[in-house]
Amino acid sequence: MIDLRHVSKSFYKRDAFVDAVNDISLTIARREIVAIIGPSGCGKSTLLNMIAGLYMPTKGNVVYKGTVIDDVNTDVGYMTQKDNLLPWRNVRENVAFPLELAGVAKAERADRANQVIEHVGLQGFEDRFPTELSGGMRKRACLARMLLYGAETALLDEPFAALDAQLKLAMHDLVLRLAAENGQTVVLVTHDLMEAVTLADRVLVCTRRPATVALEQRIDLKRPRDVLNVRFTNEFKELYDTLWERLRLEYHEERV
Ligand SMILES: Nc1ncnc2c1ncn2[C@@H]1O[C@H](COP(=O)(O)OP(=O)(O)O)[C@@H](O)[C@H]1O
Ligand SMILES: [Mg+2]
Asked: How many angstroms does the Cα of residue 37 sit away from the middle of ligand 1?
């Protein structure tokens, strides 16, 4: 589905080059859920931006279903790290925005938006504006909008960072259920190793900037997964420990 071929990305900033991504090659299968974890500032969002076709690689190619991406990739739904709701629209109008662009009639838009708004637990807030919501609520509105867009591939950039533990579990369950139901391919960037192991078929640990893949770990926990109980199994613990052993090196080096 997604094929990164020797992808590197540098930015030119204040008379100097910043290398964000260095020679990453990666193949993501249709319906696979891949989690990318790594220290802050290592290049994770840059990687998603390239899959979304918002940034072009400096070297290498991003290939999506056999075609080199050279423009915005409209086959992906992208939940960016920063929430980008339109401030002059209420929750319902924000969530329904993709349907509006697709020319869906107003009544149907509202119906379908209300449904996903309920899925993310924002019922009762349909008429509120983004400034009236907490950070976690805005994130959930972004998630609802992405779900409604219904793309075959979902890119999620630290989507649940602002949520409390209970809500996070509910959102994990929702994402797993909907991804399975709709046969979606998911690329998830996260800081949360527990989240990565709970959700993914494969976890990639990135090095500090520029990002390269330090460790690739297959997560063979059976599906469907119980997002709460899976973490108490021995298999989960072993996977978590293996990943943490590698991940902590990147954080340790950061402090030195
Ligand atoms: N549009 C941009 N222009 C210049 N530098 C950028 C841009 N986007 C990202 N960077 C730089 O690239 C590096 C990686 O950023 P990013 O991909 O956002 O990291 P992460 O998501 O892992 O925290 C950082 O040093 C950041 O400052
Ligand atoms: Mg980021």
From this structure: 15
